[in-house]
């Protein structure tokens, strides 16, 4: 053998070894072992997901609004809470994007109050009829009380400057006593209409994002408004729950400072309404948003930004011993900030129609539980600010749960959450590339995806949600082989249901595109879309034998896919 031949053989051997090594690494990265230990509980799985909200309150009682509310109510084993803007805005029930009205308060020619609860009642009746409960948002400013009433109504459309919406409804009252009386009369009326016990179960909160344009007053003026509002709520119903301040994400210094200033005042400031020290506070609210963008023609999410907002908010609340264990409601908790900004005008919102929104939701809610445990705070709810938009184009890319009455994939993740509950149980993952702190700090940007699980246990059931998520909207990323092991099952035989959301299951958007993306679908097509928008099984239900309390499952999970494994027994 010549020296040249020997070198060729060596180079070939090295090449083969290298290819084998890469193949091994690739195989390793394409499979994930997840072990669920059902005997190790991690606290109650509070239904923090069963909270929704939206800008346009008059959509509540419209055709598609009532349909979606019925579906949201039916997917949850507990009452769903609903938060809507503009419940006190002047107007005859007029509605538009980011606008709504109820005409609850006007004045006669002598400046005497006229209260009309017709539209507010219509909104709340729609909730109560479905077993839902209001987060009764006290706002915004009626025209007759606004310190700057003109211009009052905005006519914002997607693509216009966002600041155009901050008109007369966003200003402080010209008379705080009249404002307080309005709040008092509203709570008193609610007790008369729905009963004391029912209204005691609601949450009354003041305004929305007062640290930005939604409030055209100072921080102190908001605090003054809170004092008058909270006092009025408690005078009408001493056992009512009142809170705030509904600031934007505390990951932003201005929002964090506003939240601290508010909590300092509630703790030890002089109350503007009563002259006493401090103010009533039964729960604390702030918002948390991600920040997607388009990179190289693809949407790139930023879950880290949203988790950072949550983390900073929890950290601030935990720093106050007086408030650490008060309920926290993340009043808006979403991948970004503007539900009414469609994909056509804002290309980074292209994630909303398909499975990217769905898998983001699964992965982010799981981390909210982790962050609450990390800071030892009482997370009560995280409001998804995404409802529906009446009479808009099909799949226009709004942040909504349904389009023209057809459910989008993201709603099926909430149907999965509705099948969970009881106690959270331990999840172990063999090659944990992302934990909640890493995603908070760096988001999901590595070459590998976030493959993990959330698991819960009731008396005779175990449920495991598994996701394969990445911030980059690249559906060519390889499937993951999931090796799922569930230990300590308290039965020798279980009924297994395997639900799936992916490109081919529980996905009306894929079906709509296969139809040619019709903007005027036929009645038959609509029926097909409605059916495809429901939560679907991956396989038929099957009974499985359990050996030594253990069940092993293997299945492929595509990128941006979500599986829910439900085991039940008698």
TrEMBL record:
SUPFAM superfamilies: (Trans)glycosidases, Glycosyl hydrolase domain. One of its GO terms (molecular function) is hydrolase activity, hydrolyzing O-glycosyl compounds. InterPro entries: GH, GH39_cat, Glyco_hydro_39, Glycosyl_Hydrolase_39. The active site is at 209 (proton donor). Keywords: Glycosidase, Hydrolase, Signal. Residues 1-27 form the signal peptide. Pfam families: Glyco_hydro_39 (PF01229). Residues 34-531 form the Glycosyl hydrolases family 39 N-terminal catalytic domain. GO terms for biological process: carbohydrate metabolic process. Gene3D superfamilies: Glycosidases, Glycosyl hydrolase domain, family 39. The keyword Nucleus does not apply. Belongs to the glycosyl hydrolase 39 family. This is Beta-xylosidase.
